[in-house]
Amino acid sequence: MRDLVSCFSENSINVTHPLSISSSSSSCSKYSTNNVCISPSLLPSTQTSITSIYRITLSKHLIIKVTWCNPHNNNGLSISVSSADQNPSTTLKLNTSSRFFRKKKGNKSVDSDLGKIEVFWDLSSAKYDSNLSGPEPINGFYVIVLVDAQLGLLLGDSSEETLRKKGFSGDIGFDFSLVSRQEHFTGNNTFYSTKARFVETGDSHEIVIRCNKETEGLKQSTHYPVLSVCIDKKTVIKVKRLQWNFRGNQTIFLDGLLVDLMWDVHDWFFSNQGACGRAVFMFRTRNGLDSSRLWLEEKMVKKDEQQDKLDFSLLIYACKT
């Protein structure tokens, strides 16, 4: 599949009217609130991996990438740390599924040009969301990243107590922001379910993407593919005749922010025979009302240092086998 931005720059439809979504509204779009995305008899596709990218501000700007892989694929936790200037060299790699680090609890440290990097983790009591069946734990675990004895990243629900045992005292304050989340799915069903928080202090939203076939017009015997995206059980977009509208975008209003929702399902219909057709869906927040940069190709974390708030993007890669 070509670069995501270049894919959306041609052969796409453009729908830009914002749709409001809030817990107090009875409807968030012109579509029915009946959840066309969810079928009780249909199991969602398998979530195989999740990668979260964090921007860390200490004495320097760093990028920490945390990847959770499906345990059924004999994988686990992987962590890498690099400088925020997008230097391709990675200073530290941790993979709990490798033969050297195949354990649920441990630590690792490395000296690099960025300083001494230490990682502590404990997944021995990790619990997972049974509804999503994903590889990322929801509680009962911790992951801690220190850079020159400074706290860089703190994940999990038991980590603060662990930090105090390691000598940290008082208020534990540090600066990190989640700038991107990438989720990979695979399966025969074009039905994808996940959760995401678009604002750090906001609520977690249920997102369901579903592609099915519906009749249209007088020819009730002809079925056309239709793409539906639901957020919190409300339909925010419905794309008919998807084989012709395989790329496009729409803007929705969520948690007080404009969110650009983009899709590219070209390979579902036009990939080489026998190849795995992969679709891409992206949800991206925008600061303010500036829409002029929607299709600009820019680095995800290259922002003005004076800017307090970073955009957040959720990318869903859906592989139809």
Write up what this structure looks like.
- This is DUF868 family protein.
- It comes from Arabidopsis lyrata subsp. lyrata (Lyre-leaved rock-cress).
- InterPro entries: DUF868_pln (IPR008586).
- The protein is mainly beta.
- The chain folds into 2 domains: 175 residues, no CATH class; 129 residues, no CATH class.
- It has 3 helices and 21 strands.
- The strands form 4 sheets. Strands 1, 2, 3, 4, 5, 6, 13, 18, 19, 20 and 21 form an 11-stranded mixed β-sheet that branches.
- A hairpin with a 3-residue loop joins strand 3 and strand 4.
- The N terminus is likely disordered.
Helix and strand arrangement:
Elements lengths: L3 H5 L4 E3 L4 E2 L24 E12 L3 E9 L7 E7 L8 E4 L9 E8 L2 E8 L4 E2 L8 E3 L2 E6 L2 E7 L2 H7 L9 E13 L3 E6 L8 E12 L2 E13 L2 E6 L7 E8 L2 E8 L1 H5 L6 E10 L26 E8 L1
Parallel strand pairs: 1-18, 2-18, 13-21
Antiparallel strand pairs: 3-4, 3-13, 4-5, 5-6, 7-8, 8-11, 9-10, 11-12, 14-15, 15-16, 16-17, 18-19, 19-20, 20-21
Structural class: mainly beta
Q: If you average the pLDDT, what whole number results?
A: 75
Rg over CA atoms, rounded to whole Å, is: 21 Å
What is the beta-strand fraction? over 45%
In whole angstroms, the N-to-C terminal distance is 16 Å
User: How do the SSEs run, as a string of H and E?
Assistant: HEEEEEEEEEEEEHEEEEEEEHEE
Number of domains: 2
Helix content: under 10%
Shape: elongated
List the uncertain runs: 1-35, 291-308
